[in-house]
Structure formats: C-alpha cells, structure tokens
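So, could you explain the following?
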Amino acid sequence: MNQPGAAAPFPVPRAAPALPQPAGEPAPLCGPWRWLQTLPGAADSPAVLDDTAGWLPAPVPGSVATAMRAAGRWDEGAPSPLHRHDYWYRLRFAGHGRRLLRLRGLDGAAEAWINGRLVIGAGHAPDICDAEIELCGANTLDLCFRAPRPRMHAGRAALVWRGGTPAPSMPSTQVIGYVARALPLYAVGPRQPVELLALAPPGDALCAGTAIAAVATSNTIAITTSIATTLDGDTGSLTLTVRVSADVVAQGRFEVIGGARPVSGQLTPAGPGALAGTVRVSNPQPWWPHTHGEAFLYRVRAHVAGQTVECGLAGFRAVTFPKVAPRHAGWCDHVAPSRARPAQGVRVNGVPVFCRGVLLDVQDLPQVADMQAAGRWLAHARDAGLNLVVVDDDPACRPGEGFYRACDALGMLVWRAPAALADVASTVASAAASTASPTVASTLAPIAAVPCPRTLAEAGPATSPRDPRWKAGIPRQAGHAWDAEDLRDRYLRARYGVDPPQLRREAPQRYLMLSRALAADMLADAAAAAVRSAARLLLLPRLRDPLPGCGTGLVDACGRPKSGWHAVRQHCGPVQAVFVTDAAGMPVLALRNETGSALAVVLDLCSVGNGQAVTARRALRLSLRGRSVRRVAMVALALPAAAGTILLATLADAASGERLAEATWLPPGSVPTLPAAGLHAVLRGGPQAWSLEVSATCFAHRVHIDDRAWRAAHDWFDLAPGATRHIRLMHDGPARAGAGLMPIGEVQAMNQPSPVRYG
C-alpha cells in the first residue's frame, strides 16, 4: 500500500477486460498506410486532423525513421529529434463484422482509434495489445505515437532513471519529476505488423503452451492446431492439439511425415471444442544447429471434420542451457533447466555446442516482420557461421511466429535473455561464478565498425571522417560522454601504435582502412577466445546496422558484410582452426570438427620470419573425427615460433580442395613493424564470371578488395609471402545487377602503403 502523500507510479496500466479468444491465423493489415507529423498535443484525436494535410506514404511494418527516409525528410547529418513531435499513422480498409485488432511492439505513449473510437489508450501492455472491434464496411485505423516531452511533468510521478526504470530507494518519497524514456526514431512506429484476427465463439478458449500454430478455415468451421515436441534419448514425442470452432467434432487423426514411414495417431476429445493426440517416434532424425548437422523437420498433417490441415513443421531436439542464479529464474523460457555443470555450457541432443550468436532487439523487429524477411536477416548470421540468436527479453521485443519458423528451417538456436547484451554477458558470468568456471562468455566491445566506401557513398552521412556530419552516424549510449568511435580510437592507439586524431586529419583513407582492420582483428580474437574457453559461448553486439553510418553490426544498413563479418566466418564455421598455447607458452594448433561426419583434410602450415619470407613449410593429410578436437604442436613439426615469427595455417578438404578454415599466429606487437606487403592483383575471367588473383611479396595482413560494382567472396584475409590466392567476385545485388560491368577496384592491406589498382 502506498504511503500517504506518495505518488503512484507513472504510467499506471489499466486492467484490460477479458477479450474473446481468436479462432484464426493473424491477417496483416496491408494497404496504403500514410503518416503525418504534428506538434505535440496538437490533436487529441484523429477527428481534428485534416485529411488533406501533408500525409505521406508510410512503410508498415516500419519505424518513423524508415518513413522519413522514404519521404526524403531524413537528414543523416542531423537526425530529427524524437521528443518534439507526435507521429500519426492512418490506414483505410474494407471489412465487416467483429474482429480482434492486434498491435505489437508499441511504446507506452501509443494510442489507436478505429473509425474514430479510441480502442487502445495510454498505459497498455508494452508487448502485445488486443482490442475487440466492429468493422462497418469502410474503416479507418489511426495510430498516434505521442511525444514524450509534454509528459515529463504532466502529472505526479515517481522518479525514474533515463531508461524508464524505477530509481533505487531514495531518502524522501516526495515527487520531483519524471524523465521520459528517450526512444530513438528507429524504435518508434508500427515496427511489427498490424493484424486482424477472427474471433472464436463465446465461451471458447485456446490451449496454452503451444509451440507451433497453424489454421485452416472454411465457410462453416475454423480449425486451429498447435504442436509440441520432446526428445528423450532415442524416443521422440509429438503432441498435437486441435481447436475446432464447432463442438460436434468428436475425433480425428493425424500423421507425422518425414521418417522412413509416416507415424499416425488418433485425436480424441480434450475439452470443449478441443482434440488432442500424442505419438512416439522411435529413433527420430534429430534437429541440429546448422553448424552441427541437418536442421531436420517433420511435417504434421491432421484430418478433422472432413478437412486436411497442414499443421506445420516440427523438429525433435533436446536443448539444455547453463543453470543461472536464482534472481534470473526463467530467463531462458521454453528450455528445460540443465542437469549438467554450468561449465559444460549449452548442449543440443546431449552434445556440447559452441554457441556463437547475436542479439535481436527492438531495432531489428522491422527486419524480421515475417518469415521471408526473417530468413533474409538470419541468412547473414548463418553464412557467417553463427548458430544462435539472443532475443531481447524486453516486453516490446516480441518477434512473430514467422521468425521462429525461419530459425527452425535455417538451423538457428533461439535464447531469450535479459534486455541488454551487457546483461546477457553478466548473467552468464554470474551463472558460473559459484563454480569457479573459466571464461564462460566472450563478448566484444561495441566499437564503430566502418562500412565499405560504396555504402558510405550511397547512404552514409559522410564519406570522410573530416566531414562535420561524420559523427551523426556514430552510435552513442545515452548518458555517456563518449561514443563507439571514441572507443575504437582507443583500441587503434593501443593495438597499432597510431595517433587516431592526427591520422584522421592527415590521412583519412588510411584511418578508415585501419579502423576496418581493427574490427576484423578484434572479432577474430573474440571468436578464438570463445573457441578456447570451456563453455564456448560468443555473444556479438549486433548483426545488422539499423541505420546508415558506422554502426556496431557485422553487416551494414545496405546489407553488405563488413570486415568483422568476414573475420567471424573465418573462425566460426563448422570446421575451425585456432592457435592456442601449451603449458610452456608455445603455439599449438587446435583443429575442431563440429559436424557429425569424419573429414579427410589437408593441413598446410608455414612460418614467416619477420614477415619477409617463408622459413619453413609443412603439409599434412589428416582425418578429423566427427565432433572432435585434434591438436597439432608446432615444435613436433619443426616449426618453432621464435621472436618475430608468424605462423599461418590453412585447412582444406582433401577431395575438393575447398578451403575450410584458416588461422594466423602473430607475435604480440608485431603489426606496426610489418614490412610492406608488396601486393599484386590480376583480373581473370570473362563478362559473367570474374575472379581476382592476389599475391604478395611479403606477409600481407588483412587483405581487402574494394570494387565499384562487385563483391569479393572472401575478404580481409592474411597472405603468406610468395603465395597466390584466387578470389571469386560476385554480383553486389540482384543476379543481373553486375551484368556488363567490368570489375574495377583496388586491393589494400594493413601493411600496404598504397592500394594496388586493377581493371
């Protein structure tokens, strides 16, 4: 109970009335959405808005920033501040009858009207908002995202921090103000689809705890299904629950298709309007992360009320995560608690898994709005060798069912975790603190990773760090005096021994080259550290930049991989090669095969003295057992790592010659003293298939290919003295985007004084 004179928390969510349950699959409201910017509080309802005002087309799902960019109102050098305006969205559509309006991903200041009637007001639940509505033929839906500034002192409120969370206990309970949650423009707007659902008959209820849902409708009956699976040893169990909008259906049957022969089961009554059945599958083909095997999925088909319903896809898997501290109970929902020690990390089907993943938060929701969009977003992670998506546990971050289906199909694990990446790392660390476990999680500082020159020229706020608009594209955490570029400059100075401000003024292109190489080096180190650790868990800040500029993602806002993406792919594939040290501090090469099959490989090892010439070379044919680690000592191969000696390892498939993994051992502090690489580039091929032949006189560190219209299949790699590497050039865009364009560009390296041009 509140003390006398104490303020009530702000805002106070109102208890929502019980709503009829939906009986169908959500249908997104598509159409010509429009948006309008107004002064804060200028319109308390859509009735006072002029329909002939400056309404502009709006992409939905999407953010205010997306709408501004489409309308040409987005200034990359000076983004519009959020707190100065209200933002209205309007859609006119046709429809009749009772429906359930569903809105997701709205901030606390959003309101919704249907045909002029307020249906969702301030104080709604932040994760999902449902409202029963009546459609009357021609309908108008209005959404308004209110400016936070007028609400800062609009009433009695408890003191909260800048992030909107309650402040710690204070010596006085007197109210002194409210600091509104400062949301960036990319976090405001209908960031997830706006949906309409059919309503179930009165008194009907849906079953809880479903894993996968599908629906089939006809003129007289609606059928909703849900699937849940478990895997216990060599036996899989699948439970199908069917909800039918007619109580006359007494039974049905279903099939699980995908194994040697279909497995059938009966559906029997399980409550009003409900049927359920369970089947056991002996020795099912398990679902694996794509790094460890095939993401195999079974089809489930039901036969109910004379209809055949495709219920969806389901996989058999057993996933356990490390135990966590009691204060974080339930942080990985839908996953059974692990019986293993935390130091053993994540296990899938009883096998320890090196989990490497990225965080998905509210900024990424427009990019995973449906299964197709989620598949494009996840493809960047999968191609880089990542197998985990950490979903922000913020109630406003709720990806749709299409996202989870895309993860199943692509072999990606999903982990619900606390709201910030720092919280994820600290939680994992706290889980192992009581067991004195070694390094559990390897995380990367959120440095500003510079996109390629093409992206900077197309969408960045500026192409040169000397441009005053350059800083506009740099992420900055609220309340901090430094930004992600300041952090990167600190590492540049410490790692490469350069003066970043001076380099930015006198040689801006060299500054950008070193900045890109730094991101690759730091990500490579983080990945190698995670491979060496006991729990083998790597968490990266962001997959794709939400806005143009020097973001912290592996992929830029235009969808082009950055230097860090290539470094992660080199170390996070299903087959890995990583240099570690033995008890005497000598380098040892660890070869890890995460696949379920044995591999015949060729290992090529060479040592480079002072970066100038190869002093020794060895080639070995090896067999790597499935899901095993093999260590190769350099001393045993007469490849000692003396002071200034660089070691390079390349692992290739013995049959096809395909490069599987590569690793480099650089003595500490050797990068600034490397001799000039002496790069040479020759263009090969024809009008539709081009490749680049790159060679170096001395050791070349972080070789980078920059082309005006093509993209290198492999980039940011190391090259031994006298070695030649053939790099395939790919179309940068649609399949025919580069047709008729001859590759023209340049090849650079960290220790190359000036770029080498080709074409």
Observations:
- The chain has five domains: 27-197, 212-314, 333-563, 574-669, 674-758.
